[in-house]
Amino acid sequence: MDDKKLYLYLNAFLVKSEYASIKYSDFLKTSSQVNAYELDNKHELDGMLFIKKPEEKSPIWRGFTEKLIGSPLGELANRSSSAVLIIKTAKATMVFTFGYGRFLIDTQYFVHDFGIKTALNTLKHDSLRSVDLFTLEDQAVQKKSQASRESSIGVFGIDISRDVLRAVTGSPKSGINLKNISGGDSVYSFGIEINISEIACLVDLLSD
């Protein structure tokens, strides 16, 4: 059925308002090799889907292992899948990436602190599992701290006089129908059970 909900893990990026009217393809890096697909009109969505053109790769150690057995190992060839979905509503334009899709987009067009701010607004502050810090010492240092169980921010020993919070991972607040929330810089990542008819509402919700 078309309205069946699927569980997806999404990476969301909010387009800066001043770029809301540019061509969808402009949100991608000029070096991105993609195929573009229009969305089915029956969904009444304004947007476009970009799929990275398939590229077959083999691990650098393939030749070594083939020499060991004296025959080719065709199963070692693999393809990575990447996609970028752009959805525009009356309120905002948002990009969702799948696979390695985040490496296809040009980050200059996105709100730089959308990920960290949205994560802090949607997760329980006593449910943190990891934090990324940028410490302003004599030499700037990036740190990643993980807790063995869900914890409050105090467990991570943050010094507000010198530490800048860069990214967080935790569980959602009550009433937030998302799972496994992470946010840092411009990217907000989360799990969700969703059907196509709910995508536009999701864009509006996250852009508040």
Your description of this structure?
There is one protein chain. This protein has 208 residues and is mainly beta. Helices cover 12% and strands 38% of the residues. The longest helix has 9 residues, at 114-122. The chain is globular, with a radius of gyration of 20 Å. The two termini are 31 Å apart.
Summarize the structure.
By secondary structure, the protein is mostly beta strands. The chain is built from 3 helices and 12 strands, in the order ββββαβββαβββββα.
Order of helices and strands: EEEEHEEEHEEEEEH
Q: Please tally the β strands and state the result.
A: 12
What is the straight-line distance between the termini?
Answer: 31 Å
* Rg calculated over all Cα atoms: 20 Å
Percent in helix: 10-25%
Oligomer: single chain
**Low-confidence spans:** none
Strand content: 35-45%
Backbone shape: globular
Task: Report the total helices.
Answer: 3
> What is the strand arrangement across the widest sheet?
2-3-6-7-1-12-11-10-8-9
Give the biggest beta sheet: 10 strands, antiparallel
Mean pLDDT: 87
Class computed from helices, strands and strand pairing? mainly beta
Protein name: TIGR04141 family sporadically distributed protein
Pfam families: DUF6119
Organism: Klebsiella pneumoniae
